[in-house]
Amino acid sequence: QVQLVESGGGLVQAGGSLRLSCAASGNIFSINAMNWYRQAPGMQRELVAGITKDDSTHYIDSVKGRFTISRDNAKNTMYLQMNSLKPEDTAIYYCNADLMLLGGYYYDLYWGRGTQVTVSS
Q: How far apart are the first and last CA of the chain?
């Protein structure tokens, strides 16, 4: 079994900061890319940031310079440091991981349940 659990969401004022965590646990052999997605009410889910096993990163333009994605491979944990938050960042943030199970032969995508981030003006 594999579980991805997000934490760190909450209510913050504009200009504030939050640090999200995603801990992967279970019968994991290897994790390739890990990603943060978000979905605001009435909007499609969008990729916010991604990071490869070799720490190559990608960000959507709207968060560049404000968000930093990182990972700790020894802990199978990914982080998203969010600074200078804006009301437009309000969404449910989801963890996503491309991983292979122990004894497996292929990679599958796994999702967390999400954590709510609300930024007040």
A: 41
Q: In terms of C-beta density within 10 A (0-12 exposed, 13-18 middle, 19 or more buried), how is residue 78 classed?
A: buried
Look at residue 75 in the predicted model and tell me its pLDDT: 94
73 φ/ψ sector (left φ>0, alpha ψ -120 to 50, else beta): alpha
Beta-carbon neighbour count of residue 100 at 10 Å?
Answer: 15
Find, among 65, 111, 55, the residue nearest to 85 by Cα: 65
Tell me how far apart the alpha carbons of residues 67 and 64 are, in angstroms, rounded to a whole number. Answer: 6
Between the alpha carbon of residue 63 and those of residues 39, 48, 69, 99, 103, the distances in Å are 14, 8, 11, 26, 37
pLDDT tens figures, 44-53: 999 999 999 9
* Cα torsion 61, 63, 68, 71: sign: negative
